[in-house]
Design a protein that fits this description.
globular, homodimer, nine-stranded mixed beta sheet, Rossmann fold
Amino acid sequence: MPLKKNEVKRKKSVSFEGDQEKIILSKTYPTTGILSKIIVGVILLVLLYQLYMYIQVSIVAVPVLPKFDLNVWWGPNNTKVQDSSIRPYRIVLSDSMQENLRRKFESYRRATRIKSFNESSEYGINSDVLGQIFAHWQFKYNYRERARYLNKYSHFKTNVQGLDIHFIRVKPEITDNVKVLPLLLLHGWPSSVKDFYDIIPLLTTPRAGHNFVFEVIAPSLPGFTYSQGAVRPGLTTYQIAIIMRNLMEKIGFKQFYIHGEDIGSTIGSHIATIFPKQVLGFHTSTPVNFSKLAQLTLILGAVFPTYIAGDLADKVYPLKDKMNYFLEESGYLHLQSTKPDTVGIALQDSPLGLGAYIIEKYLLFTNPNNKNIQDGGLSTFNKMDLLDNVLMYWTTGSITTSLRLYKEVIDNYDTEEALTRIPTPVPTWGLRTKYDLIHQPDFILRWKYPNLVGVTNLDDGGHFASFEKPNEVADDIFKAVKNFLSKTE
Amino acid sequence: MPLKKNEVKRKKSVSFEGDQEKIILSKTYPTTGILSKIIVGVILLVLLYQLYMYIQVSIVAVPVLPKFDLNVWWGPNNTKVQDSSIRPYRIVLSDSMQENLRRKFESYRRATRIKSFNESSEYGINSDVLGQIFAHWQFKYNYRERARYLNKYSHFKTNVQGLDIHFIRVKPEITDNVKVLPLLLLHGWPSSVKDFYDIIPLLTTPRAGHNFVFEVIAPSLPGFTYSQGAVRPGLTTYQIAIIMRNLMEKIGFKQFYIHGEDIGSTIGSHIATIFPKQVLGFHTSTPVNFSKLAQLTLILGAVFPTYIAGDLADKVYPLKDKMNYFLEESGYLHLQSTKPDTVGIALQDSPLGLGAYIIEKYLLFTNPNNKNIQDGGLSTFNKMDLLDNVLMYWTTGSITTSLRLYKEVIDNYDTEEALTRIPTPVPTWGLRTKYDLIHQPDFILRWKYPNLVGVTNLDDGGHFASFEKPNEVADDIFKAVKNFLSKTE
């Protein structure tokens, strides 16, 4: 049944309800006679008070930061002594993996038997795009060479709260008196540390005019690729935030900077909220305030788009178009946040199905116009890069545990939302790309990030900022941290 | 992004908007002085008129029945002469299919590597349920025996509007002076003609006290299992309605009865609306009026549940619970109606993934409480029955074309909705099962079906009525048609 339209319908009907009420009121209590005036006045006062209390309690009030247990155990409850050391790790892409995939690819024709309508990518990944992905994967993707490439950075694993957490650690080569600042890079879904491969050398190389450089820690989120998933429910973004902070402490960093993207930005924001003294600065390429108040303001602001959103007006409004776009693109969110394990079975079992599911997001979220192109914009990407990321999910069999994160967010929504309402004093910098999914004006960001030092508007790029625009993002991180430092000096 | 909560939020915010407006009005125009009263009056009149026009035009008004082209060509545009005969068809389940599946099952461990949290089926199909499905499919499902069973009815194929349409046709054995009435059985998604295997003999066997019996025509919907899918966009439910009516005419039935379930009920309703003179009676186990007015009425009626819904009150309300339930269970709808081809790639390629995706619907829509059980209620089913249906989709590689129907419904929503507002004079009978997804009071059904002869409330069963309760559904169809006939006699 037509969900999309349902939405529109519900909205209309509710505002109709509002009008209806007004009409009933005006009919039942004509404004003549002192008594009826008093009655209307009292009713209005009661309504106003209820509204005021609702807004106060559920929308505006800043909740008290919940007390979190910082040592929740997410691994199996066994009596084995846990190896808590930090061990080197190497990514493996073997001939036998390739052989196994080749065998699976024998049934490729089956998956493409359904011809697309061939006009666009409007129905999802079409058979042309799938054919190109397949051909590249089957005939050009060189497993050994890619394994060498992926191992060019130092990989490690260590156990935090019962889970083996994987991370890349790259120290800069410094020659002169340059400060080394620890920077935690947090990827999103369906991304992996692979998204940071091009930006890492840019961040770890000293640059002129900057007396600092970064030491990069890029972990895989628990349940994503090389990091273990939880064995019980509840590992939502703020719990991952705690794991990430504990990981940084374990590596030896009491204080650090953060750059986050997509759900990694949410996690970074939670770290800055729960541990404000440990986060020296927060840079995000997904600058969004997810609080109810922010969303409400944008909805009410639809009446005066330019007044509310300024230069961003055409990115924030018209609301109906944005809402339709969101509904059209959020089917995967809806499914993942309700039945991750069901869709996960097919994605764990079909390499091409997994590839299509992941690559669709890269194609559509870098530029929504790719939807109208027959090849979905695939030709503008280096297919090797896209496949590296798919193989990280495939070889680790981790797509289901990654999908579960969305259900955890829904199941723990009250605390998730409360955290978006608690301002953090951490110096913050936002990078808005042209085609990102959500754009919000600065004043709304400031409710969550009162110490918003700056915002950069990039007239290019989309949701996967570091992957698409490593130079611009690296420049922006350097710029942001320079500003953070000058404020504290 | 928490879709579920988003919904609630939007609703709240919109009603807040309404209240806000009221407050602003009362502040800006205090009801003193004749001029301000006139201004308020005029504003209210304008609002009232706009509201009235909106309701009239977009919700209440009965649209004119659109003129449909009854011969749209959905097959390839080639110059080959089309075989338009009606050919016998046999379902094939071969050893090589089994062999191919066994090879695919070698990677089964991969799909179950992700252990479920094992408390419930809350995250979707869990590894216990998957394990049982797998074991039955791999070790107990006898392909040859099932093929014999599935071929016990006469199968046919014939080309209608460019597409090869498959159907089962079963004539009753009549000994005495009993009228034979043609009955079109329309299945839904993710069902197939398999759902009707137990009910067919009940419908084609004469019974005491009834001077009629049915000849059954059960087609596979275009794009579902053995019927070909369209090669271009647009084959939505009312276009399928036209194909089904043309099929019936081709077989030789100018007039016939219809029983529909799920989206098959929508199609049956459209046939009764577009061709009212050809439909002698319409029986549905999904008695729902999908018009905006129906939904609006149910939303407004939330204030007086018992008044609106009578005995059904606890099935229709509280609205918030029903809405949350709907959101929790409709992720697949959201995905299928926006990106059918993407998720289709994995489902075409992974037999276990397909099985899980389809069987989940059977488990949850027969009884929502199955969600809280570790085995998802699987033990209450005959697994052979569930797998027959999965194999029909698997062996024909038709899941993607079946998913596309949801996108077509969205893409053609205006006409779809208009058709729900055009009443049909066809005698109609509804069967409400206990656990069906949507329940509506009779008076709302009558807006669409003014000739609603009767409604049966079954205190058992769920969404797949014929599959779950063949005896009860057959009894009800006989009862309904007896009533239809007595009205015309």
